[in-house]
Amino acid sequence: MKNLIKYIIIMSVFTAIVSCDTLLDPIDENRLDYDFVSSDPASAEGILLNGYSRLVDQFTFIDAATDDAVNNQLDNNFKRMALGELNAQFNPASRWNNYESILWVNKFLEIIEAGEIVWTSDEQMNEMFYLRMEGEALALRGLHHFYALQAHAGVGTSGELLGVPYITEFIEADGDFNTPRLSFEATVEAIMADFDAALALLPTDYGLSDGDVDPLYANYDFDKYDVVNGSRYNLRMSGRIVRALKARLALFAASPSFLNDQGYYNMAATNASEILNTIGGVSGLADNGVDFYKKYDENDDAEMIWRGTIGGPNSGIESRMFPPSVNGTGEINPSQNFVDAFPMQSGFPATEANGYDPQNPYANRDPRLTEFVVVNGSSFGGGTINTGVGGGIDRLDSIPEFSTKTGYYLKKLLRPDVRLNDDGSTVNQRHYDVYFRYTELFLIFAEAANEVGGPDQVINGISARDVIAAIRERAGLTQPDDYLASITTKEAMRELIRNERRIELSFEGHRFWDLRRWGLSLNETVEGAFFDGIEYNLGIPVEPRNYQSFATYMPIPNDETLKFPELEQNAGW
């Protein structure tokens, strides 16, 4: 936390925000003091924009610390963690540094509460800038506390289920950081309070037309409103995003490893369904939800609740993930465990279905399998990828730290139209960070609604069965779905929903946290597959998982607990 100091270093932080004209006169050490920052709109907004740092996107690839994949880089931190090195001194999944973003937004809230910033000479517009930016800051403060809670909540050495410290003010470098953790539920309530306060200030969406404006802003001149809350702010925190975050938080809190609470399940389902009904309920499920990553287009954005800016053409992710024969380093290798999660085309689990042939294991399977995974014989990246006999450098274990360890390469999240040519040239494509997709919200609803009342519990016109049917139909499973129709109990639907979540949100950083909140085993050995030229050998042990029994709850960083005795460590660490 002490990395944030009293003076804000403007040259490194606000280069893109403050114009050259603002800095005509030199300032000692290139630093702006509090008096300047608290009265200069661009500098103050720059502080708020730091709250948008450390957002968690889909490119963490922490899935390689689960049973879904391995990382072929021997020194990869998530590999080391999964193999048994996780401790309070070494935790690649730590999010304690999100407190720095929290301090930034607290500094911004301190500035605007002083009321000295004049965004514009127009009184109405100035007032709306205050409302909207305060809402953004409160929502970001809640979100960064959620990130910390997700990573560090747990049963403390006292035996109490604990959350994290909740910081609501800016703390100077020499201030008191010795703050105790709140109880888990008190932390959840504090985050919810910030989210609710933000909802009272933020527009539901940016770029609304006249007549659709939220009641808070209805009495303002629309042309002025559009300047403050127009479509140019579409990627900033909005009321819609906050409602979705509330549903995510409520589901997390309700989960078996935490409160296992019907009230929070109901809250998650209610918030999710209310948002989903604004897009038409299950009929609003975006067609491109399965393959959103193949084309990043601001005009085809129906799957996105919240994303980042579309970046310039590049091939950085693909160079890490493409198989070696098409000039990648094949870093993430999906597991046989993950492949087994995909049902047959009929919808029945592969292990239970008539027609599954282990010697032709990818035939008649859920189409999502070959959308997400490069299997033996696939065409991908400009070549044919064979991971068995005759596969050359793509073959299982052919080249250390390049070839697959499991018999599979990753396809999901990669642009298939990227090319990494033999001569070193590339065909690059655009990408963006994803923070929240509608498919996740549908799955949040399905899980929560099922826990409230089973597969057919209707909340705001939607049931868990409705959602899973729509997702499986979009995926291309044969309809009517006889397997889904056979599911009649909450317990059976729970397993199906968890499996659909595993598939749909795969390699977007969810399963690592899902296993923990569900209280499921963290130590399933990762398995692979090999085609020896005659037959497939499936279920080959590849890499163990070696988590401590108490690793459901991750540690507080050791240096923090040493410096601040009020911080109680989670049990076992």
From TrEMBL:
Principal location class: membrane
Record keywords: Cell outer membrane, Membrane, Signal
Coiled-coil annotated spans: none
Similarity comment: family membership: Belongs to the SusD family.
All copies of domain SusD-like N-terminal, residue ranges: 89-206
Organism listed in the record: Draconibacterium sediminis
Name assigned to this protein: Glycan metabolism protein RagB
A Pfam family this chain is assigned to: SusD_RagB
Keyword Signal: yes
Domain RagB/SusD intervals: 303-573
